Amino acid sequence: MQAALFATVALSWGLTWYAIRLQLGPTPDVVAIFWRFLISAALLWPVLLAFGQARRARVRQHRWFALMGLCLFSGNFMMIYGSEHDVPSGLVSVVFCMSTVFNAFNMWIFEGVRPGRRVLLGSALGVAGVALLFAEQILQAGLFGAAGGSAATLRGVGLALGGTYAFSLGNLVSRHATADGTSLPNAFVRAMSWGVVFLGLATLAAGHGFAAPLTPSWTGALAYLVLIGTLAGFGAYLSLVARIGPARAAYVTVVSPLIALTLSSLLEGYAWSVSAMLGVPLILLGNLVIFAPVRPAASPAPAARR
To answer: For residue 299, is it within any domain?
Structure first.
């Protein structure tokens, strides 16, 4: 059962990045994200009610739900979608692995929890990996003033890192949103609902309409993102966390980018450079170093009796 849950999460999240790619262009990004989470929230509320899991929340908790919605279900996705206009979806998924690094340093900045040596080593590997992954674009930007494709790639990388950092902040906020005993699914659906509000306001502020293109690729991608990427993937992940704990469940973030990279190579024509071949393993290795369980120190052998 654990293996099935792990495979479900890895596949659903690994394919999500290319599904996002299929939604780019026909409509503004904010409108696509709005429909994704509006439908997801509209489906999730009845599920919680049907299984008797919906719980009341205090009014003051909504400040955390709103902030969580801004970080996890609106602002971060606007940057992630924006990044995929300039960077292959598989590479965006690899950059997203840096959330583990951001998580550790946000805990240090906001909670005063200093990262250990293993986290620092994993972070250093991750940063080096990202630098290698986009080494050619970084060098071209330095030599030629970031003209043409190099400028677009660097913009995409910046947006991917920004979206990843916002996601990491959302993880931290979720700790406060559930500190009073609110279950994660209840916090999740309320935060998603707030995200829909923010996305709706952003759509109106930008002067966009809410009309959605009913092309097969766009609607198919929307259906996948709602049913598989958001609802099934998140549900399977929560079940996995309940069974094996969050530390071991987090290994899925190392596997899903490999699926996304495979799709980018097959469907987006991504051509691997030597530096990228070195950078991706470094990023994934950095995650493995951070996630690896700490072995308890061996207790000293009892002194022999005289």
So the answer is: no
